[in-house]
Each structure stands twice: as C-alpha cells, then as structure tokens.
Amino acid sequence: xxxxxxxxxxxxxxxxxxxxxxxxxxxxxxxxxxxxxxxxxxxxxxxxxxxxxxxxxxxxxxxxxxxxxxxxxxxxxxxxxxxxxxxxxxxxxxxxxxxxxxxxxxxxxxxxxxxxxxxxxxxxxxxxxxxxxxxxxxxxxxxxxxxxxxxxxxxxxxxxxxxxxxxxxxxxxxxxxxxxxxxxxxxxxxxxxxxxxxxxxxxxxxxxxxxxxxxxxxxxxxxxxxxxxxxxxxxxxxxxxxxxxxxxxxxxxxxxxxxxxxxxxxxxxxxxxxxxxxxxxxxxxxxxxxxxxxxxxxxxxxxxxxxxxxxxxxxxxxxxxxxxxxxxxxxxxxxxxxxxxx
Amino acid sequence: xxxxxxxxxxxxxxxxxxxxxxxxxxxxxxxxxxxxxxxxxxxxxxxxxxxxxxxxxxxxxxxxxxxxxxxxxxxxxxxxxxxx
Lengths: 342, 84
What we know:
- The structure holds two protein chains of two kinds.
- By secondary structure, chain A is mainly α.
- In chain A, 68% of the residues lie in helices and 0% in strands.
- Chain A has one domain (2-337).
- Chain B is of the alpha+beta class.
- Chain B has one domain (7-82): Translation Initiation Factor IF3.
C-alpha cells in the first residue's frame, strides 16, 4: 500500500484527486446541484449518475473484499451510528446548497476562477476552525447519542455477509437503470467544450474510489484538510490557541484532491463584479459546510462515495439528514438570492 | 444592440454560479415573456458557468423557446428567442 511512505501516499492521493477533479469538472458532477435540483427544479438527471456510482462502488468494494484484496474492512475512521451524523448531514445539506457546491465542487469551481466559490472556500476553512471551538461539547453529544455501539455497518449489525445486501440493492437497481437506458435518460445534450456524460464520470469515480481504497486504505476524503488549513490560518493571528484545541491534537492525516483544468479548455477567467449578497450567501454556506463536515463527521464525498457503498450506518444517517437540509436550502436560497439582482 | 425589427436584451451573469444563473435567467424570461413570444425581443445571456449552458437552454426549450449556445473567449453566450 502507498501508506508505507507519506510522500507516496500524497502522490497517489494527488493523482486520484486530479482524476476525480477532471471528471467532475467536465461533467458538472456537482453533488450540491444533484440534491438541490431535485427539490428546486424537480430534476433528477445528475442524481441518476450518483445512484449508478454508488451501486458500481458497492459492487467493486464487495468484489475486492470477497477476493480478500481490501486492506481493512470496514475502512478506518467510521464509527458506530450517532445522532450527530443526522444533525451534521442536515447542516451539510443546507450549507452545500447555499455555498453552490460541496467541499469538492467548491474546490474545482474555485480552480475554474469562481470568486463566489473562493468565498465558500474561505467559509469552509472558517467553519472547520469554528468546529474546533465546540469540539469537546459536540464530541460529548455524539458519544451520548451513539447507539449500536461496536457496529459500524448494517451487515455487521444483522450478522449477514455484505454480499447479500449488495445483491439485493443491485437486483433492485438494475431494472431501474435499464429502464432509464430505454428511455434515454442517461445522457443530456450539452454544447460546452469537452463535456463528459455524467454516467461515464460515475463509472470513473467508482474506479477512483476503489483505487483509493486499495492504495491508501480508505475512499476519497477531504475535509480534515480544511480543518488543518483553519489551524494554520489562525496560527498566523493567534499562535497556540487553535492548534492547542483538543480537536486538532486528535485529527488524523487525510488526502487533499483538489483539481481543475479549465486552462486546458481556455475557460479560466475571474469576474469581480458580482452581487455582494451572493458573496455573503456562499460564505455562510461554506462556513456551514466546514462546521457540518466535522460534526457529522465526514463530507458527502466520504459518506456517499465511501460509506454508503459498504452500508456504513453513520453514512446512511448522514444521507437521511442531508435530504431535509438540502430541501431547506432549496426553499430559502431563492429568497436569499433575490433573483432580480443580476 | 438593437435593430429596427428586434431588440436584444443582454444579461451578463459571468462569475455567478448555479442555481442563481438559472434563477436569474428564468426571471428575465418571465419578465420579458410577451416580447419574447412576439419575436420582438431576444435574450442574450453571458455566462462562464458550464452547468448553465445545459440548464438554461433545457428549461427555456421546455417553455417553448429556441436556444443557441455559442462559445466565446472564456465564456458562453446563450441566445433565447421565439421558435421560428
């Protein structure tokens, strides 16, 4: 495994991150948009790709587990289910809609020159730092509301092989996927340069997730790095305060995978003249994202692309919280935006 | 940008991200619905949000309008007009 060398681990993480960022940018594979569009515009086109990605990841992880090729199962950091995951998921859902992107979407949009995403990015760092202030209290709440102690996944809880659940989910999803194929619902007409249909990105991301699991020992994740950035930033102003907080002393190392390649498409431009209101909304959204991803703990990438495919209960609770959060965001965002501003 | 026959209303939303791009576009379509339907007005939207080049034309076409997407230097122009 690449974890034997820290440099190799970062190199592998960077490569996988670049691959994921490339695919996501080319397909507009924005997870915030997937959930927001479902509630705001009743559109589920990109959500179909996410469903495909989850099922493919599920099949890949399980196949490699059965072949005894996974380094650790379930992967590290996941814990027993807790109400903290639902609360974190709800706040995350609200935050990503307001921020106009999730933790990764914010990065690749910022890489494409979006100042609004840069504002959300600043919020993410701020929120991650804010969490450190409430960590002891929130950790106590999380422990107090933990149930089924000692069980991380549904198969562990019910004492059955994950293969059975994977088969059940696949059997249920397959007719649906085939029906979408018959009705030509997998592809959309796009006129942008270099567009990749989201179903192809879904398959690519499932492969990236598998490689990450095999080489680094866990699927893609990112938000711990935001927390570290917050510690570094605050250290510039208030030496020893934030870095001394219990949260930062217990934070494991994680992998950064930001990527953007708009220069290749000749689309990199920065536009300054934007409504101040939109900067404030994305800043607030980013702050909620940073805070929520520590509270859950974990972001949408971690839970939806990693935890859900192995039926991690923490991830299922995160998704249960995410849905009403995204719904609420979709409800209030148009009012906050005051769309007559252009 | 006007001619004797038609007027082009330009909406520059470069720098904005979704969903504000679609919401602002919808707002402009709705505010100019009569003029757009009569063919007197065309809506020219400038955006650098790749997502908007799919969502805005898709929504406008569902509303019965014709759309064109033209790549420019670092952004896209979306032209919304009455079906000919």
